[in-house]
Amino acid sequence: MSEATTLARVIVRQIVEAGITDVVLAPGSRNAPLSIAFYQAEQAGLIQLHVKIDERGAAFFALGLTKVTGRPVPVICTSGTAVANFHPAVLEASHSNAPLLLLTADRPARLRRTGANQTTEQARIFGKAVRYFADVSGPEFPMELPFNSLQSGPVHLNVQFEEPLIGEADTSWLDQIKIAEPKVFTRKAPGTFHTKSTRGLLVIGHDRGGLSQESVEKFANELGWPVIAEDPLSFKDAIAHASVFLTSPKIRSEVKPDTVVIIGRTTLSRSINASIAQARKTIVIDPRMATVDQDRSADQKFVALPNLQVVPADLDWMATWKKLGERAAKVVAELSTWSEETFARDIAAALPAGASLFIASSRPIRDLEGFAKPRQGVEVFANRGLAGIDGNISTALGIASRSEKTFAVLGDLAFLHDVSALSHTGNPDLRLFVIDNNGGGIFSTLPQAGVDGFEKIFGTPHGRDIQAIAKAFGVNASKVSTNAELSQAIAAPVKGFEIVVVQVPSRQENGDYLKSIYAKMESL
């Protein structure tokens, strides 16, 4: 029995016994002991092994799995640059407290800085982005894996494997494994929020700070204040289209809140943050303040939903917010121009109950916030830890691997950024909509619009046929360019993996159209 095989089996056994159900593997040589041990565990029906050829995509796929299962997911790679390719997903996991267990294979420490092949300084390569790190070699075992640390974010085990890497094929080490129920981590005492404010506002960030939708909804009902939700598909009682009508300074001044409670972080709309800034008092509720956001500023801060001692909201205050939402909803419902905004409105309304939706950063998630009518029945996911456009296809594939019917919406640059994920997708039930405006559409709605050199350094037109690219990877692909075609595309049963290219007007046209919608809000 090789030392490497023994070490790998100790690690795998603990992972299986901890109740972990999914593992993601990027193949290589130095991680062969773990690859073989996990394969044996899968053959015994103890775990599901997902193999992805690209380490960056593998880590984002694992991130998607953590989102949809709520459980830790190990992701394994070989030594060298493979480890560095985990870093984007590790940062996203760190800023969203996602439980990624990073198992990076390494050569023995004595080979570092000697010119040995595929050997670099992997120890602490992720710096402060992980909650726990160990540089593991054979003699250090047996040890208990740090599962408790995963409750607040990623954990990194750098595992040194001595040759020989291949041991005997015996599988008796899997006999009599006892799988535990997944741990339920205890949280700190929540504390109490006291207020006599009758003109308060509750703002819910897109990922709710990692708190469950049910717990946040219960808190909102007890609080009894108007609700603005960056994810309107999860909170049916939220004020409709608040991020759109609050672009009006006049309206913001009319609904200036006395107190604002913020759950998670508000990262999407300047209009929402401008409204928050008017408040006399702000309260932040976000578990990440215990890990990565310790310097958040607020009059009161909680890392868990507090108990409430509040008075009833002012009835005129509530009526004003409701009226603004209803009037904005009428404007949005009457929009008839085929655009990114009407796409967001229509797909949000048409998604079937029980569906999962992954929404990419940049314009798509902002359009969903602004133009979707509040509803429930759809489980919504997004990478809002650092809000990057990298790894979005891979994350959506990870979610789809554990969901019955999944939809995803990406911009064209996010699609191209992670196009390598199409090389090894499997066949999940996933319909992926790619909004094609030939470049970085969000910049046409930001202050950069119109600066000298805009197209080259911000617009970045790619000129690529996304439908042809998808088909080159063997993926079914189609195009839509009208609201009627979109309705048909959404209504069709989700069977297997397919891509729908959403052909929309130019970035400049969209920027101008968005401004015209904002102008209509001035007269609400």
UniProtKB/TrEMBL annotation:
Magnesium listed as a keyword: yes
Keywords for the protein's UniProt record, in alphabetical order: Magnesium, Manganese, Metal-binding, Thiamine pyrophosphate, Transferase
One Gene Ontology biological process: menaquinone biosynthetic process
Stored Gene3D superfamilies: 3.40.50.970, TPP-binding domain
GO molecular function: 2-succinyl-5-enolpyruvyl-6-hydroxy-3-cyclohexene-1-carboxylic-acid synthase activity; metal ion binding; thiamine pyrophosphate binding
Domain Thiamine pyrophosphate enzyme N-terminal TPP-binding, first and last residues per copy: 6-121
Domain Menaquinone biosynthesis protein MenD middle: 188-359
InterPro entries with a match to the protein in the record: MenaQ_synth_MenD, MenD_middle, THDP-binding, Thiamin_PyroP_enz_TPP-bd_dom, TPP_enzyme_TPP-bd
Domain Thiamine pyrophosphate enzyme TPP-binding: 380-504
Coiled coil: none
Name of the protein this chain belongs to: Unannotated protein
Species this chain originates from: freshwater metagenome
